[in-house]
Amino acid sequence: MVIIGENIHVIAKEVSTAIRERDAKVIQDLARAQAEAGADYIDLNVGPVKKDTEETMEWLVNTVQEVTDLPLSIDTLNPVAMEAGLKACKRRPLLNSASGKSLSKEQMLPLAKKYNCDVVISVMTDKGMPPDVESKVESIMDTVAYANELGIPNEDIWVDTILLPISTAGEGQRFTVLNLEFIKILEDVLPGVKSTVGLSNTSSGVPDHLRPLLNRTYLVMLERNRLYSAIADPLDKELMSLARGEMPEIVELIYKTMDGEDVNLSSLSQKEIEYVKTAKVLIGATLYSNAWLES
Amino acid sequence: MEYKAPVEAYTGVVREVTIGKGKKSLKIGGENILPFHVFDQGSNPNPAKFALEVLDMKPEDWPEHLVEPFWDVISDPVKWAKKCQDFAVDAVSLFLMSTDPAVKNAPADKAAALAKEVAEAINVPLIVYGSGDEKKDVEVLSKVAELCDGMNLLIGPALKENYEAVGKAILDHGHTAIAQTPLDINLLKELNVKLSKFFPPDRIVIDSLSPALGYGMEYGFSLMERVKQIGIMTKDSMTMMPIIANIGGECWKTKQAKENKEQGLLWEGITALSLLLAGANIIVLRHPETLKLVRETIKAR
Q1: What is the DSSP letter of B14?
Q2: Is the bond preceding A99 in cis, omega lying within 30 degrees of 0?
Q3: Which residue of B has its CA nearest to A292?
Q4: What is the pLDDT of residues A23-54, one digit of tens each?
Q5: Which residues contact A55 (CB under 8 A, 6 or more apart)?
């Protein structure tokens, strides 16, 4: 599993302040910590970067590259910022992200070709978020075909199915289930493409102390269905252990739960029970509530 | 080949909840089939129940045609409650509207004394709704529970903000609780899980909120439908509670219901029937003629 470290993210106040004030230390500490924790890429989620766009991107990319050799994922919807970021990268970067929206097809995809980089393409289109597996497949096939015509091969494309929060009233669980299904069939539909997800989205809106458990469990489930990479928190040690296959007993329990086996909770440790319960809400076998571990 | 209709059997059973004591008691819930699925395997031992609503103060914005059946008792909640019995109600629901800080901020003591007086005056069980103000209700509902000790009233709303205090008072004094959440199945389950940690789940009734026809009824409908499906079909213990649909206030504040009587009765009636189809176990109405209309419609099925 390729882990794209998510921690340099403008939503975090310390990051936005550091970028604004050109405080290299904060950014470099975050980059170094993620690299040491085993991240494979460092994501630079910079938002729209409306001010001093090019100079900011150049500074940020170089600041990170001073402390790590890891490839970077340039994460913005602003094509000017994207191009400036890609240009500054020493190693082959990841363009994060393009989509099936007309504007993105016109402005982002050509950049992937121009800079010969890998590119995340989401299932989003001008019509919005496809509501089911069939329409996700249909949308992504269109966009990938378009990218192929531009000369971007499937091997350079990382498809993002877009995860939605499980806590979204009534609907969230339907999406955790259908995204598992989509990831499972993706390689058969588009041979050679890779896949990625913004893992933490799954647990958005969930009480903070419970979020890692959902992220970790879902990662194991997605990985079983051949997920190639995830934008996630490499500083979550347990998540990294799971991703590296160091916790086979837990993985086994999650698999059994996915297969609908009735796992006997009485013989399990508290931690194992929590993983089983979490897997059950992620496959939609039990109704989600923020108190899912308590019933 | 002869056609044989498939018959479904389910694993979940909605808890049967008793409200009231002795002769004044009423059972709701207990079904192990989806609403009106009389063709499936199982039964509903306690088909739809109905309550009429009484306000603890003279209503100010009610249209003439809604006041009319109670015109002579509208300023006296005790007499009003007694008069409800002329319409064969299964229960009376007292709405302690005057305690709302935004209305009259009436004291808890006074409201509780009235609740007791009403409960003693009628021959059917009493439902008591606080104003919904999360802070004031702690005071008001605790006092109601205490003063009516042992009468097993159905008291609410217990909200996520106050369920601990409200739930404790209801439990300590032998009543049944209404757990209310705003049109969200995940929050509904969460409140039931948390409440059930110290409160017996067979004394909880769900209020998932019930907007009127044309004002979001479909949200209330799908939610109730889902609560029942998850409880009865997937046996989720934390949704296997009966549901109360408190629709009178929602329906009669609509422009359409206020405009004229026939429209108002149909507005309240269609909302009631729809929510019964979605799985409501007890419905709180305002107009006695709606009650008659809905009962006759179900009977004619």
Answers
A1: P
A2: no
A3: B190
A4: 999 999 999 999 999 999 999 999 988 899 99
A5: none
A2-234: CATH topology is TIM Barrel (3.20.20)
SS3 B121: helix
Q: Residues of chain B with pLDDT > 70: what percent?
A: 100
Name the pTM for this structure. 0.90
Cβ(A180)–Cβ(A223) below 8 Å: no
**pLDDT tens column, A90-142:** 999 999 999 999 999 999 999 999 999 999 999 999 999 999 999 999 999 99
Asked if the Cβ–Cβ distance from A169 to B187 is below 8 Å, we say yes
Interface membership of B223 toward A (CB under 8 Å): yes
Q: Indicate if the alpha-carbon torsion angle B260, B266, B267, B269 is positive or negative.
A: positive
Q: Do A167 and B230 touch (CB under 8 A)?
A: no
Instruction: Report whether pLDDT(B165) > 90.
Output: yes
Q: What is the pLDDT of residues B107-121, one digit of tens each?
A: 999 999 999 999 999
CA of A287 vs chain B CAs: smallest distance (Å): 7
Mean pLDDT over the full length of chain A: 96
Q: What confidence score (pLDDT) does residue A99 get?
A: 97
Kindly state whether B194 is in contact with chain A, defined as any CB-CB distance less than 8 angstroms: yes
Q: For residue B300, what pLDDT is reported? A: 85
**Cis peptide upstream of residue B157 (ω within 30 degrees of 0):** yes
The residues facing B95 across adjacent strands are: B55, B129
Q: What angle do CA A254, A257, A262 make, to 5 degrees?
A: 140
Query: Dihedral of CA B167/B169/B175/B178: which sign?
Result: negative
CB contact under 8 A, B239 and A287: yes
Question: Can you list the alpha helix ranges (DSSP code H) found in chain A?
Answer: 13-20, 24-36, 53-65, 79-88, 102-107, 109-114, 133-149, 172-189, 211-224, 237-243, 248-258, 270-282
Query: A168 falls in which pLDDT band (50, 70, 90)?
Result: confident
Domain positions in chain B: 27-299
Select the residue of A169, A285, A294 nearest B186 (Cβ to Cβ). Answer: A169
Q: Is B237's Cβ below 8 Å from some Cβ in A?
A: yes
Residue B142 pLDDT more than 80? yes
**Nearest-angstrom CA–CA distance, A133 and A131:** 7
B203 touches chain A (CB under 8 A): no
Long-range contacts at A106-109 (CB < 8 A, ≥ 24 apart): A107/A79, A108/A79, A108/A82, A109/A146, A109/A147, A109/A150, A109/A152
pLDDT digits (tens, 9 = 90+) for B235-275: 999 999 999 999 999 999 999 999 999 999 999 999 999 99
The tokens for B117 are 């007086």
Domain B27-299: which CATH class? alpha beta
Strands (E), B30-117: 49-55, 91-95
Looking at residue A171, what is its pLDDT? 85
